[in-house]
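To whoever is covering the structure queue this week,

Two jobs came back overnight. Logging them here so there's a record in the thread.

Job A:
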Amino acid sequence: MSVISIGQAVVLGAVEGVTEFLPVSSTGHLKIVEGLMGIPVDDDAVIGFSAVIQVGAIAAVLVYFRKDIVRILSAWARGLADREERYHHDYRFAWWVIFATVPIVLVGLAAKPLIKGPLASLWVVAGSLIVGSGVMWVADRTGRHKRGEDDTSFKDAMLVGGSQILALLFPGFSRSGATMSTALLLDLDRVAATRLSFFLGIPALTGAGLYELKDALGTGAGAAPLAVGTLVSFVVAYASIAWLLKFVAKHSFNAFVIYRIAVGVLLFGLLGAGVLHS
């Protein structure tokens, strides 16, 4: 019998879909909800379930940005064969995404024992949520928001892509939170920062999702809960991406900053009360 019911799979799929791309930490939210529902958060089947449903959210970003992805990949392929095409921004951007993914891959492989061990503690998640909120607040306040997507450079891509390491080492920091904050500090406007975060996250998220998937399918989470959770994650993540891009076009990141602090404090409280275990 699966440790996760169909109803719980729906809830967890929705949580994953909402939080994967918002700058609020999907890891922290999943652990909190699992603990509140009485699901053993350290069970291999539960860990495997979380890895599998993440693939649904990754699929959502691939589908949502499919036209952009096809355009960029087409420009890259043309540039490999035609020197004149190499001056096109999309061709260069494709290479920037590839180069910007290298640091997180290298750190992920080198620091895997730490990432899977002491840094996976929910105490770290709670602290990172709050510290990351401060970084985001400063970035949104000090960034001049004057540069658009077409103004991005190789330096921007490397710095924003490299900032994903913060979320890798300190999961509560949030990959989206780290990349968006870095982009804002580089004076990109909020929409450009958000879109750059998505594009630079695609290779890392896809690679990590597939890597975890191969080990997660045989953990006993149950085929039906896995299928339901992944489908819900896909649908909710797609809607979440569309909402986020519209939201940042007109609003600051203050709402996310306040929410992250609240969740971090809540997580500290649940850990201190023994409701959750790190």
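Job B:
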Amino acid sequence: MRLPKIYGFLKKDLDLIESALHESIQAEHPVLRKASIGLLDAGGKRIRPVFVLLAGQLGDYDLNSIKKVAVSLELIHMATLVHDDVIDEAELRRGKPTTKSLYGNRVAMYTGDYILSRALEEVTTIKNPNVHRLLSRTLVEVSIGEIEQIKDKYVWDQSLRDYLRRIKRKTALLIASSCKLGAIVSGLDEKNADRLYQYGYNIGMSYQIIDDILDFTSSAKELGKPAGNDLLQGNITLPVLYALEDKDFKEMIHETFANPDMVDEESMKIILTKLKQTDAIRKSYKLSDRYLERALTALDPLPHSRAKLTLQDIAKYIGKRRS
């Protein structure tokens, strides 16, 4: 089963959110408008809006308020992708040219800034101060994560804690906030809102770990970018950290990346083969499973409902992802 089928009953509301996203990024400047629409039309799972909607259905579901939160969070996510592609000098995302490759770094950065500004404008209409506090704290952490990712590039001796803190800021916090903000605007009590935050945090950690695994185990066609691209860009992900425990792999990495600009496709193939010969992939999936178990445990006290079952099914789907 594909992921969208799991939450198929949300299609009508998700279509409204998609329309609202298009309305939100209609910039007056033609280049800014074209760049923003191109990014939106490139697609995406819209998983953050899905979490907002499902969390909202556990409370007093008001689509108007829910929609504003969902649009805002997806726009924030889109803005971070544009900035990421500039930092990583990425030419492709989901198999399509990035904003950076089409328009250059300056336009890409302004596009990201514009989309982020529209996200904040969307959420200002919600009068609950708890929404603004959580969103602002999340944005601060996401921004710190962007800087940390730059700082940690090609740093081979970083710890597991460094990696986990980085993916927390990169992915998990925005998903956790999606769940909690959906709960807040729907009037859920603080305990249940916090449970949904914990669910989202652990789902986000697992999701990013599996993404980092797939960067090595999937084909370039499946990824929409070269296999091992994160490593090529100097981003040290969990499979690499585990593989570096192998002496031969560690020596190979240090020799190959002594001059990162000289690493070619053939060198990367050798590294990918060697990494798969270590225990790194299995250990990475094992850690992902631990986060998934915590996510499901966080949902246990919530009352039985279709939304809760769907959140559980999404967790199980993520745990089984192999492509």
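Note for Job B: Residues 190-217 form the longest helix (28 residues).

Please reply-all if you pick these up so we don't duplicate work.
Q.
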